[in-house]
């Protein structure tokens, strides 16, 4: 098997040669030096007119290649799951016009939250801006944005409100009825929402939820969730609220 450096060069050169591709970036744990030997490889192709999923299929790499929009649209508008030299690759399509629009919105403190599989709190549309900031550019030129002050304020406020409302609804609609599963789900979601707020308040980019609670210092929520019973739901919600409120207050931007 080739070295990691040779493998990265090989994949980058093949992707960069495709019509319409303006840049290629490496993301995920491998871009940040936190990967394990079995970690997959996350690549993104940044493109303008002329790029098509058929160009990826034409590389001849085994796997599944989606059409544009097949992954639900929004910030995840498609990609591929491929195997190259016995290594697993996740490839994301990134249309530069959309990325530039999201960057302009982020600088003004505007964003939306989209539903996405495997994300308890959903995914903010400034995800693509976070990728620009933390991913490693392998080919082409891409903006390398700092965290906009307007986004720090807006995202902290929005995620904080979402976390508090999630807990309030669970207390009102489920706790008194002994709905353990519903309350457990609400606690998990509220914790992730609060963690997004903490990260935004600190000006720390987030690209996934895998280490979100740890980075925000909210892993103690596990202990609260672990002692849920039908008779302890209101107390657990109160304890979660206290934990989250402390972190939200400490991370509120000036």
Structural class: alpha+beta
Task: Please tell me the CATH architecture of the largest domain by its name.
Answer: 2-Layer Sandwich
Average pLDDT, rounded to a whole number, is 95
Our measurement of the CA-to-CA distance between the termini, rounded to an integer number of angstroms, reads 51 Å
**Structural domains: how many:** 2
Helix-residue proportion:
40-55%
The CATH topology assignment of the largest domain is Beta Polymerase, domain 2
Low-confidence stretches: none
Shape field: elongated
* Number of E-state strands: 8
Which percent band covers the strand fraction? 15-25%
The total of helices stands at 10
For the CA atoms, what is the radius of gyration? 20 Å
**Main sheet: strand order:** 3-4-5-2-1-8
CATH class of the largest domain: Alpha Beta
Protein name: Polymerase nucleotidyl transferase domain-containing protein
Domain Polymerase nucleotidyl transferase: 15-52
GO molecular function: nucleotidyltransferase activity
InterPro entries: NT_sf, Polymerase_NTP_transf_dom
Short description:
The protein has helices at residues 4-16, 28-32, 53-57, 96-107, 127-134, 149-173, 180-202, 212-216, 221-226, 233-251; strands at residues 21-27, 41-47, 63-65, 79-84, 87-95, 113-114, 123-124, 136-139.
Report on the structure:
The chain is an alpha+beta fold. The chain folds into two domains: 4-139, Beta Polymerase, domain 2; 149-251, no CATH class. The chain has helices at 4-16, 28-32, 53-57, 96-107, 127-134, 149-173, 180-202, 212-216, 221-226, 233-251; strands at 21-27, 41-47, 63-65, 79-84, 87-95, 113-114, 123-124, 136-139. It has a six-stranded mixed beta sheet, with helices on both faces. A hairpin with a 2-residue loop joins strand 4 (79-84) and strand 5. The longest helix has 25 residues, at 149-173. The model has no long low-confidence stretch (mean pLDDT 95). Pfam families: NTP_transf_2. It comes from Embleya hyalina. This is Polymerase nucleotidyl transferase domain-containing protein. GO terms for molecular function: nucleotidyltransferase activity.
